[in-house]
Amino acid sequence: MPDIKIRKELLETLLELGKSQHPDEFLAILKEDKGVIEELELVPGTISGETSARFDHFMLPLDTKTAGSAHSHPSGAIRPSDADLRFFPKIGKYHIIIGNPYTTDSWRCFRANGDLFSMEVIE
Ligand SMILES: [Zn+2]
């Protein structure tokens, strides 16, 4: 399967979500269709502190369209925490972290093992 891409509009939605939830985190499941991520499923509930602490207790609705996850780091540190790295392999291959200040450059994508992945953004 070729590497996945993300729709620009969805990326902008993720950045907006990060901004609107700040200083709390948000967590979303990313859905792909034909190799393009264009949908998200917001994991409900306001989360304060470290999202990842919650991941272990959360039963995620997995289906074949699940590409991975997206969540925010209000601290602005755009790298996976230890808890993130335990969580990532459970929920798909691609994981986006959005950081304060939630601008166009405030995000990175990681593979399940924590390697940086440069995901292509398409219109
Ligand atoms: Zn995290």
Automatic annotation (TrEMBL):
Keyword hit for Zinc: yes
GO terms under biological process: proteolysis
One MF term in the entry's GO annotations: metallopeptidase activity
Domain MPN: 4-116
InterPro entries (UniProt xref): JAB_dom_prok, MPN
Alphabetical keyword list: Hydrolase, Metal-binding, Metalloprotease, Protease, Proteasome, Zinc
Organism of origin: Methanochimaera problematica
Gene3D superfamilies: Cytidine Deaminase, domain 2
Cellular component GO terms held in the UniProt record: proteasome complex
Protein name: Proteasome protein
Pfam families: Prok-JAB
Superkingdom of source: Archaea
Record's keyword annotation contains Transit peptide: no
